[in-house]
Design a protein that fits this description.
It is a multi-pass membrane protein. The protein has one domain: Maltoporin, Chain A (Beta Barrel). The protein is built from 5 helices and 42 strands. The strands form 8 sheets. It has a 22-stranded antiparallel barrel. Strands 3-8-9-7 form a 4-stranded mixed beta sheet. Strands 4-5-6 form a 3-stranded antiparallel beta sheet, with no helix packed on it. A hairpin with a 5-residue loop joins β17 and β18.
Length: 743
């Protein structure tokens, strides 16, 4: 395959791009000098929404963008509100909308590739993006929107309506409360929706990949009324076509509206989103057969061992409302609520490896999943003085109600294939094993209710050069499980746990912060799956009690104004994550016992050390060990799916002498990891290289950007992750062209 073999659809699309740019330029109204000066050029530092009256920013306003525009100075820390990275005893990263556009990142997973503490995997036999933060999993349904859990899609999330993607590293039960899905012990992700800026925005983008996948995105923002108090931001996008994987096709649609009001004391916002994803012939995870003695090399990067009849439809409607009111100059109260409805249905395939030669079997299933969630939170943030000691007091309440409906029909029999030379197998007959009611009307299988109350105080000494944070969150978790089909209750437990947090920040100089923390996490226990790798699970649908984790961390942060760095060491103690093991009789057993300890060192660098040169990278080294396993058989082994190290190196450079031209590159390197608890099956170290370029210019005083990116330049074939005890293959080479015009 040539490096950039653009498909036939590219030619008419390129013509359409040129026509749209020309029409936009000629149809645009005349631009005043003032408008031209207000317009931002992508080669300049974006400072985000700016208060032109030079007033102090509103409480809980988003932290400003850091030098270089790729990351922000801080992010939202749940009950603590929006915080500057130098003032909190935690490690965090916040990626901006500019980075998303510059890299043509389509999903949240594409953005998180920039973080050396995060790696990505596929979901359990579906298309969901799962993440590994500090060696522990985070599922899509445990990502929050503007601090609110339980209302985002659980498989794929588009970036087209996002302003920030924020990563908090470490257990966060105190910060945000317990996650609805039980993951996120190694860290959490929060998404910030787009808001209208004071400068009106009219932006149209189109892109196309080398396989002919075509996308369009319209982004409109406007403020209205006296002092621009009312704002509206509308995003409309769709993409459709073949991906880089053979015979895999995707279609995505998104419509979002973000409304806000900013008064003298009252601020209101509302976000409403509809997203639909269709994946046909989707290549998903690969299970490991019981007789496998070694993991074979990954097949060619674009090989698709999933059958053509496999299809997934994911439809989500969600939204939230938020209100903030300044009681006075020092105290702010807030309340927020949201809800979502999810409808997923698919014909799924499962591929199980049988030997090192790549021989495998394929089974099929039809699964329906519906979910209705409601989430609420309220709180109070304030500051005051007691003598020479300053205080930042935070009080918060949260509540999440989730209800899941599921039904399945596992096909009878299986077909032989090979991951190197896939066979186009026919869809197996239905009726092998069924559960739930009609697939079009699945029955309730799970209900969860979680509520919590939190309080914290940050004490400031020595003119706030020494900050000590202490807090508690009391959480109550109620989980109810119901049998497929009959609706009979199979699990019912309620448990309350109090999780503390302690943190210390010492700033001996203005540009240096030393920090340390002890924080705990809480997650609802896992539920044993019905099948694993085509085998029936002996303890299917068994639900386990909540598990508590603990983290101790210390480090240093440096902020030199135009560039910065963080260095930290941590230790996380976590009850062993659930996993399935195949038995000699062909069945499987879900296991949840013992303890996993992850110890790591993290280094991150970011910013613009010299004008026109932007850096974004880091390195993570992880040592992991499990104990308390059944009979002590696997005591001392590494945990499944935890790489030995992770390295990122990213650079974005404005080419001297070529006005408006920027080039960028990124390297991802990930160390080896084990795929089984016995540590007999391992994945080797892998590397991936991405490159890109942009050209920013003006047409009739309108900003235009042409972009090109190539992901996985060498088309490297590799197993990306063994999270969950199954394999995720890395994406093949994909080249994309884009054009953006502000009109």
């Amino acid at each position: 395959m040539p490096l950039i073999p653009f498909a036939v659809p590219f030619r008419p699309t390129l013509l359409a791009l040129c026509c749209s740019l020309s029409l936009a330029a000629h149809a645009a109204a005349p631009v005043t000098a003032q408008d031209a000066n207000n317009r931002q050029d992508d080669n300049t530092l974006e400072l985000g929404a700016t208060n032109i009256n030079a007033e102090a920013p509103a409480p809980n306003a988003l932290p400003p963008v850091y030098a270089g525009g790729q990351v922000a100075r801080g992010g939202q820390l749940g009950v603590l509100g929006n915080q500057d990275i130098m003032d909190v005893p935690f490690s965090m990263s916040s990626y901006t909308e500019k980075l998303i556009r510059d890299q043509q990142a389509e999903t949240v997973g594409d953005v998180l590739l920039n973080d050396s503490s995060v790696r990505q995997a596929s979901g359990y036999a579906n298309q969901s993006q799962a993440f590994v933060i500090r060696g522990l999993p985070l599922n899509g349904d445990d990502i929050s929107l503007n601090g609110l859990y339980g209302i985002l899609p659980r498989q794929l999330m588009s970036t087209d309506a996002l302003e920030r993607v924020e990563v908090f590293k470490g257990p966060n039960a105190f910060i945000n409360g317990v996650t609805p899905g039980g993951s996120g012990i190694g860290g959490g992700v929060n998404l910030q929706p787009k808001r209208a800026d004071d400068v009106p925005l009219r932006r149209f983008s189109t892109d196309i990949s080398n396989d002919g996948r075509l996308g369009e995105h319209l982004d409109i923002g406007q403020r209205f009324g006296e002092d621009n108090r009312f704002g509206a931001r509308v995003n409309l996008s769709q993409r459709e076509g073949d991906t880089g994987v053979d015979d895999e096709n995707q279609r995505s649609k998104l419509f979002s509206v973000g409304l806000d009001y900013r008064g003298d004391a009252l601020r209101l916002s509302g976000d409403f989103v509809y997203q639909k994803e269709q994946v046909n012939g989707g290549r998903n995870s690969v299970f490991l057969g019981s007789g496998l003695t070694s993991i074979p090399k990954a097949p060619s990067a674009d090989t698709n061992y999933a059958p053509k009849w496999a299809t997934t439809s994911l439809e989500d409607t969600f939204g939230m409302l938020r209100a903030e009111y300044d009681l006075n100059d020092n105290w702010t109260a807030y309340v927020a609520g949201g809800a979502k409805h999810t409808n997923e249905i698919g014909r799924y395939s499962s591929t199980t490896l049988n030997d090192s030669a790549g021989n495998a079997t394929v089974t099929g299933s039809r699964i329906a999943h519906q979910e209705d969630n409601t989430s609420l939170m309220a709180g109070l943030n304030g500051k005051f003085q007691t003598g020479a000691i300053s205080h930042k007091l935070n009080v918060g309440l949260t509540g999440i109600w989730t209800q899941a409906r599921n039904a399945y029909d596992f096909a009878s029999g299986s077909s032989a294939t090979n991951i190197y030379n896939p066979v186009d197998v026919a869809e197996p007959a239905k009726g092998g094993s069924t559960g739930g009611s009609d697939l079009n009307n699945p029955g309730i299988t799970a209900k969860t209710f979680a509520r919590s109350a939190a309080v914290s105080d940050t004490f400031g000494f020595m003119d706030d050069r020494l900050l000590f944070t202490a807090g508690l969150r009391r959480q109550e978790l109620v989980v109810q499980g119901y049998a497929y089909g009959t609706g009979e209750r199979t699990a019912n437990y309620a448990k309350g746990i109090t999780t503390p947090v302690y943190g210390l920040v010492f700033k001996p100089w203005d540009h240096v912060s030393f920090y340390a923390n002890h924080i705990e996490g809480l997650a609802s226990g896992p539920t044993a799956p019905t099948t694993f790798g085509g085998a029936s699970v002996t303890n299917k649908n068994q639900t386990y009690a909540p598990a508590r984790s603990k983290q101790t961390e210390a480090g240093v942060k440096v902020d030199m104004g135009s560039y910065g760095a963080t260095l930290g060491v941590y230790r996380i103690e976590q009850p062993t994550q659930g996993y399935s093991e195949l038995n000699s009789d062909g069945t499987a057993t879900f296991v949840f016992q013992g303890e996993q300890v992850n110890k790591g060192v993290e280094l991150n660098v970011f910013g613009e050390p010299v004008p026109g040169l932007r850096l974004l990278g880091g390195a993570t080294v992880i040592h992991t060990e499990v104990s308390g396993t059944s009979g002590g058989t696997n005591d001392g082994n590494r945990a499944v799916g935890v790489p030995t190290f992770q390295l990122n190196a990213g650079v974005d450079w404005d080419v001297p002498g070529l006005q408006g031209v920027s080039v960028n590159g990124r390297m991802l390197r990930t160390g080896g990891q084990y795929a089984d608890a016995a540590n007999t099956l391992s994945l080797p170290t892998w590397n991936r290289f991405d490159v890109g370029a942009r050209y920013n210019f003006k047409v009739a005083q309108r900003d235009v950007t042409l972009g090109a990116t190539v992901e996985n330049v060498a088309n490297t074939k590799y197993w990306e992750s063994a999270l969950g005890g199954y394999l995720t293959q890395g994406d093949p080479r994909v080249a994309k062209l884009s054009a953006t015009v502000d009109f």
